[in-house]
């Protein structure tokens, strides 16, 4: 009885390569695998390039000022959109190539694609609306990376407010003051308020008692404006000297005096906090706002009480006999 020799690796490889399945895997299968690997690598390269461009644009502005310019923010947004569109086009091209390798003719897909497109046109109106709105957000430079914005969204009871972290054709991502990431579809944005475009304004309302000498208050606040331009760190954030606007409103107990200061974009809140500290110190040093006797409201109540006393009670008491 003769022993049958086991087939060698060469024989097995020849048998596998000559088999229809093996031949397909060696030809079209490798082509599909190469297309998928290329798509993955190209996607990573596109994303890496977009991040590098964004970082280089941001790094180029760090030494020039405290905030990024509108041009840099717009270029960062455009780079993000271009990378997204490039990845989508890459996937479409790879899908067409794979379909051709599998044996599906692209021409035969025209009619089904038309029917599918009509069906999706009714069901994906919101997506198309988001894409169109995102296109105009980018082209009109409504906001960009790093901008502080307040977005009014349809169907929401409160506005979305935060710093723009990402802008695509479909959504805008904001980082709120609490650290939360808010994703807003571009098609649902009714109004976009950019709080950090070109320049911003810090508004400081100072309440003082009604009986205070307003000329003295205005003189003290003008001194505060001049002192702000010499304060440590404030001149770098201010575009010009703060201005005293005067009386803004009158209440029962207090009068509100307004100061405004033009600042670098996005720095109005920091400037406002530091200006309030300087104003509070100046008012305290000049004795403004401290209790100085009976207030106007108490005096008015006293007058009303005296008027309510009966006439006979106003008579001077008769001396005892």
Describe, in plain words, how this protein is organized in 3D:
The chain has 321 residues and is of the alpha+beta class. It folds into three domains: 16-105; 136-194, SH3 type barrels; 200-289, Alpha-Beta Plaits (2-Layer Sandwich). The chain contains nine helices and eight strands. The protein has helices at 9-18, 20-62, 70-102, 110-123, 125-139, 214-228, 268-285, 296-307, 311-314; strands at 148-153, 160-167, 171-175, 181-185, 189-194, 200-209, 243-250, 254-263. The strands form two sheets. Strands 4-3-2-1-5 form a five-stranded antiparallel beta sheet. Strands 6-8-7 form a three-stranded antiparallel beta sheet. A hairpin with a 3-residue loop joins strand 2 (160-167) and strand 3 (171-175). Helix 2 runs antiparallel to helix 3 and helix 6 crosses helix 7. It is elongated. 17% of the residues are buried. Residues 291-321 have low confidence and may be disordered.
Q: Which bin fits the share of residues in helices?
A: 40-55%
Structural class: alpha+beta
Mean pLDDT across every amino acid position: 76
Count the beta strands. Answer: 8
Strand content: 15-25%
| First-to-last CA distance | 160 Å
What count of structural domains? 3
């Amino acid at each position: 009885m003769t022993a049958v020799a086991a087939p060698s690796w060469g024989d097995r490889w020849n048998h596998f390569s000559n088999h229809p399945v093996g031949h397909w895997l060696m030809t079209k299968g490798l082509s599909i695998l190469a297309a998928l690997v290329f798509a993955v690598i190209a996607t990573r390269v596109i994303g890496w390039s977009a991040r590098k461009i964004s970082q280089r644009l941001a790094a180029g502005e760090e030494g020039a000022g405290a905030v990024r310019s509108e041009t840099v923010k717009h270029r960062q947004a455009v780079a993000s959109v271009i990378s997204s569109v490039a990845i989508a086009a890459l996937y479409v091209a790879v899908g067409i190539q794979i379909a051709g390798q599998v044996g599906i003719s692209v021409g035969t897909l025209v009619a089904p694609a038309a029917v599918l497109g009509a069906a999706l046109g009714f069901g994906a109106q919101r997506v198309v609306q988001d894409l169109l709105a995102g296109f105009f957000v980018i082209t009109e430079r409504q906001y960009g990376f790093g901008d502080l914005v307040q977005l009014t969204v349809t169907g929401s009871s409160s506005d979305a407010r935060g710093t723009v972290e990402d802008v695509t054709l479909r959504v805008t991502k904001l980082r709120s003051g609490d650290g939360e990431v808010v994703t807003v579809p571009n098609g649902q944005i009714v109004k976009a308020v950019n709080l950090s475009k070109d320049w911003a304004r810090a508004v400081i309302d100072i309440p003082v008692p009604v009986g205070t000498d307003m000329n003295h208050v205005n003189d003290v606040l003008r001194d505060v404006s001049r002192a702000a331009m010499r304060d440590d760190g404030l001149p770098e954030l201010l575009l010009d000297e703060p201005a005293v606007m005067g009386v803004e409103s009158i209440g029962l107990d207090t009068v509100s005096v307004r100061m405004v200061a033009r600042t670098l974009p996005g720095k109005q809140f920091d400037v406002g906090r530091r200006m309030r500290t300087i104003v509070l110190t100046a008012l305290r040093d000049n004795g403004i706002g401290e209790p100085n006797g009976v207030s106007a409201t108490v005096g008015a109540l006293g007058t009303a009480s005296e008027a309510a006393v009966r006439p006979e009670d106003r008579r001077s008491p008769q001396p005892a006999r």
